[in-house]
């Protein structure tokens, strides 16, 4: 029995036993003697090496962790009940969820089927959309921060979350986050945005179907360097989820799928495709219900029902991630010339026909340099299809007639764009054209 066990916090919360330990503290199962219910309490311990100023910063971060989810009420975001200051440190009281994390499920049951991962992602997108609308960014979405609870998927650990109006409390020269799931712009030291959370969601979905993150190296430096300079290996198990993951793992934040489009595509991808001769999944398959959670046919459900496979339920709340110091500056040096060249997926043609006279829906000509462009061609019902990165060499022309589509060009001065016979403004800098269709 530890010294803290069975201690009554704030004359109300009786600590029962520890559920997990981390570098920054302990998560306890406790009983709220006022409301007669069990809760989870995160005990935050200050690292011994912190000076007084750092302790103030650390305490502010703890309060922010509590306030961020408190600003958003959603079934897929952990609910915070109370924050208590006792024993010279903060304690966060939250709902008790007895369920494995996605990380544990993958380790014990194997990767998810694409439609199961899509159903899980669908719930997380809803939660993120609501959080982002309230000005809350999570900044640390990863499998260990996703709980697979009965009837719901729950996003936990807002220790790195930021809200509109809050100042950053990460020291200059410090990287905080999970390297395998952090967005490239955040790894470069830039300000996090809602698109940064969507990148992390894409990396989490990649891990859900592949069993590993898209960038999986043994040390932090190598992982962050890959995030900044490499394209992830193509998923071999993603199926219809593959284009969605690719649409999220775009190094340029402006090219990532939006909340609305992402939600629609995940909804479609979460619908199982069954043959006419079979209406029952094979025995032992990892099946998630339409809510995105382990169903009664899945191994994860059987693990929760009894000890037949030697597993038992887990309750894990992520503890704040330890900062990895002094890597951002080194990584900027590693970048060299910036992004990798996008792969050519079109066959641009030479031609002297005036662009305005072309009958094609979209015509892009490179003049004065190499034009880089990204196309997202839609499918029936408005769902986006394949994301293509294209290079158009100086003097060449790329033509498109598959619509609807979105188009992003690297530079409006170099990339001369004509849509339905109408020349687009030649403005320097990246330009995006949305929902292109026939006239």
From TrEMBL:
It comes from Actinocorallia libanotica. This is non-specific serine/threonine protein kinase. Residues 265-307 are annotated as: Disordered. Its EC number is 2.7.11.1. Residues 272-281 have a biased composition (Polar residues). Keywords: ATP-binding, Kinase, Membrane, Nucleotide-binding, Transferase, Transmembrane, Transmembrane helix. The lineage of its organism: Bacteria, Bacillati, Actinomycetota, Actinomycetes, Streptosporangiales. ATP binds at residue 42. Residues 13-269 form the Protein kinase domain. Belongs to the protein kinase superfamily. NEK Ser/Thr protein kinase family. NIMA subfamily. Residues 286-297 have a biased composition (Low complexity). It is an enzyme of class 2 (transferase). The chain crosses the membrane at residues 314-335. It comes from the Bacteria.
């Amino acid at each position: 029995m530890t010294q803290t066990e069975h201690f009554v916090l704030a004359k109300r919360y009786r600590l029962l036993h520890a559920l997990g330990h981390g570098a920054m503290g302990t998560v306890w199962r406790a009983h709220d003697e006022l409301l007669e219910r069990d809760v989870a309490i995160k005990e935050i311990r200050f690292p011994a090496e912190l000076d007084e100023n750092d302790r103030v910063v650390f305490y502010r971060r703890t309060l922010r962790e509590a306030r961020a989810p408190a600003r958003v009420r959603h079934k897929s975001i952990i609910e915070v009940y109370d924050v208590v200051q006792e024993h010279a440190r903060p304690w966060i009281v939250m709902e008790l969820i007895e369920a494995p994390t996605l990380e544990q499920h993958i380790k014990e049951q194997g990767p998810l089927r694409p439609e199961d991962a899509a159903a899980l992602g669908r719930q997380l997108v809803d939660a993120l959309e609501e959080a982002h609308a309230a000005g809350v960014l999570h900044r640390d979405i990863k499998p260990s921060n996703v709980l697979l609870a009965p009837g719901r998927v729950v996003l936990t650990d807002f220790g790195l979350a930021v809200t509109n109006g809050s100042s950053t409390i990460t020291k200059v020269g410090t990287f905080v986050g999970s390297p395998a799931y952090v967005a490239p712009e955040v790894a470069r030291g830039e300000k996090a945005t809602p698109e940064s959370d969507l990148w992390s969601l894409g990396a989490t979905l990649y891990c859900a179907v592949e069993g590993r993150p898209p960038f999986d190296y043994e040390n932090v430096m190598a992982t962050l360097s890959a995030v900044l300079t490499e394209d992830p290996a193509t998923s071999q198990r993603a199926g219809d989820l593959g284009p969605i993951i690719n649409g999220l793992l775009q190094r340029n934040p402006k090219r990532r799928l939006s909340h609305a489009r992402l939600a629609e595509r995940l909804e479609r991808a979460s619908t199982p495709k069954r043959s006419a001769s079979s209406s029952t999944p094979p025995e032992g398959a990892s099946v998630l219900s339409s809510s995105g959670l382990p169903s009664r046919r899945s191994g994860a459900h059987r693990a929760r029902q009894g000890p037949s496979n030697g597993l038992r339920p887990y309750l894990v709340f992520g503890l704040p991630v330890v900062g990895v110091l002094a890597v951002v500056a080194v990584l900027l040096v590693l970048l060299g010339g910036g992004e990798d060249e996008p792969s050519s997926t079109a066959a641009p043609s030479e031609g002297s026909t005036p662009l305005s006279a072309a009958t094609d829906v979209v015509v892009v000509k490179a003049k004065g340099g190499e034009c880089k462009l990204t196309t997202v061609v839609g499918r029936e019902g408005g769902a986006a299809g394949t994301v293509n990165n294209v290079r158009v060499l100086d003097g060449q022309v790329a033509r498109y007639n598959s619509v609807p589509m979105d188009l992003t060009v690297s530079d409006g001065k170099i990339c001369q764009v004509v849509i339905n016979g109408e020349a687009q403004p030649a403005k320097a800098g990246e330009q995006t054209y949305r929902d292109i269709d026939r006239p």
